[in-house]
């Protein structure tokens, strides 16, 4: 096929935003649309090659797969091989297991399926997946398996039938993507049936231009380029993808392919030597950037600095130039004498893939090759390795409205009925096990129930799509039980400020919590929630918190109100383990007390206004902040005393510090109630 330099430039327009997006450059929040541009380009090029060869009678499946193997596999294997020593030296056991699985999935062309099952593309944990970006290669490879055979069948029926069939498939895939963006967004992002329309859009361009000259149209090609760039700069991780929004980068790319003919402004722009040079190395550049960024995040105890990410971007370019020159080009052009024939290149590819899969399987041995880690690192990880069974049992997440109260496993031993209940969100769930043990040791009964991402009252919805409508029915059921059972004391533990402000915690020292914005609004406004920064929403949510607390008090129920628990921002056990692996001293570990007060100022001020004889207030900041270390909220004192099992939930050791004042408060309120009677 005739070389089109503007396509090389378009590859640069695709790959640069992806890299800057993964580097965390805020202006490129929609940089991930570069992958969609790649899909359209791939569909166009592959269909052009196949259809042209079919028309000449020279197309063979073996020849097609030989060319794909020469193009894709050598540099991919090179990148994976180069990742291995860094994975050995820096990865925690869970990361090593996941990395081993991803190697196997890459070799089987199934990494998109693996990452769909593991986590969302935009999840913070995904940033530490060195092979995350191979999901798009898997989609293309799955396309390569099916589409050539389909074109062989359609070729028999003529060009019109072929075009109509491809168009119908594209429309069906697009419709499924639009539906999937709402019904199953994570699967829709990764799986081929909701991505196929993007590749097929390129195929349609190829079939249109197959036997005609490419027209030049400045207006349409400029609209296309503007549509692609609009996606890059205007979209973010909250934009449903793929969906109708994906029409901008996909349609824009198609317009460029169809109408950026020689002489047009877009053709001249995309044919600039800098862009075509980046385009030539774009495949290698795409493969190198994510491992560099991921291993930097794995190795750094905190979020890598912008300077480091900039240097790694330059390093990715240099590595891409080298691998394009010494790996891509020799294999693609057949200059490797031992691999000149199709069977040889395919056979060698299979052998290397098997070796890689064996290496990947080895990464799962011994719980992620944990013998690599020093004892201090293993001790730190032990805190999160075995969650307290009470949290697993008594923390709900499906909006269960009709639980068989009381649930025996969520009560202190030998308790038939408790006068005290602990309720709230996962912060309450995290302390449940230690609370049940402490109350039992103190000779007190306790019942504990909590629900993920719910503030602890009925009458609320949250922005998190999974839990949006689950909070209200669950806590309606809990409140009904409290009213009917004669519960005398309610202990409230919740991540109050999260539901008010919505944003993940940033400790200002490189510890940025792995959490999407999750804020609350009133249930009556479930179809018209206020925005994350809407002051009116915040005001009504905070007012509702106070009103719900007053409702308990006014009905004669004692309330032990636990103020916000300090958040860490960084995953405490992980950070301590990585510090131990690199012999870095971080003990005692803590975050700024001022940061805690600023984060929770509105909630603290509102709670401070509450005053009632049946109300007791517990301030975790008095325990964790300025007590062990002045000016700091303590996260851990040593690998034997770690107070969090992740970036914001208390471990059993941390919960143990909170129990004495809570028990004293329950006893005090009970004694006061008895005296008043």
Automatic annotation (TrEMBL):
GO molecular function: acyltransferase activity, transferring groups other than amino-acyl groups
Membrane-spanning residues: 12-29, 35-53, 74-92, 98-116, 161-182, 194-210, 217-235, 241-260, 272-288, 308-324, 345-365
Domain Acyltransferase: 5-324
Keywords, in A-Z order: Acyltransferase, Membrane, Transferase, Transmembrane, Transmembrane helix
Ranges for domain SGNH: 405-662
GO cellular component: membrane
Pfam families: Acyl_transf_3, SGNH
GO BP term, pick one: lipopolysaccharide biosynthetic process
Keyword Transmembrane belongs to the record: yes
Top-rank taxon, per record: Bacteria
Protein name: Acyltransferase
Lineage of source species: Bacteria, Pseudomonadati, Pseudomonadota, Alphaproteobacteria, Hyphomicrobiales
